[in-house]
Structures are given as structure tokens and as C-alpha cells.
């Protein structure tokens, strides 16, 4: 199951550096491409605000 970034995101960029498959893109709120997401949870573990959850 892919992960998604909720509106709690503060766009700090931590998740982008942690994603091993490059599934996260920048914006006002970062987004995870569900087709690229490997469902590893690395981004969720790294997120300081808990903004990344399973979709």
C-alpha cells in the first residue's frame, strides 16, 4: 500500500532525502506518486510532523 502526505506537511524536505525510489515531489505540500512508491515507510519514519500515512 502506498503512502500519502497529509496537510500537516510543513514542506521541510526530509522525506525527499529519505525516499529510495524518488517518489516524492516538492510543492506547497509535498506529494507521493503512488505508482512509484515502494511502500517501504522510510519517508513516514523520517517525517518530523507525522504528516505521512498509509493510503
Descriptive report:
- This protein is of the alpha+beta class and 55 residues long.
- It has a single domain, classed as Alpha-Beta Plaits.
- Helix content is 18%, strand content 18%.
- The protein has helices at 14-18, 42-46, and strands at 3-5, 24-25, 31-32, 52-54.
- The strands form two sheets. It has a two-stranded antiparallel ribbon. Strands 2-3 form a two-stranded antiparallel ribbon.
- It is globular.
- It starts with a strand and ends with a strand.
Q: Would you tell me which CATH topology applies?
A: Alpha-Beta Plaits
Structural class: alpha+beta
- The parts where pLDDT drops under 50 for at least 5 residues are none
Could you give the order of the helices and strands?
Answer: EHEEHE
Report the portion of residues in β strands. 15-25%
- Helical percentage: 10-25%
The CATH C-level class name: Alpha Beta
Largest beta sheet: strand ordering: 1-4
CATH architecture assignment: 2-Layer Sandwich
Query: What is the gyration radius calculated from CA atoms?
Result: 9 Å
Distance between the first and last residues' Cα: 7 Å
Average of per-residue pLDDT values: 94
Question: How many E-type strands?
Answer: 4
CA-based shape = globular
Largest sheet: 2 strands, antiparallel
The DSSP helix count reads 2
Q: Tell me the number of structural domains.
A: 1
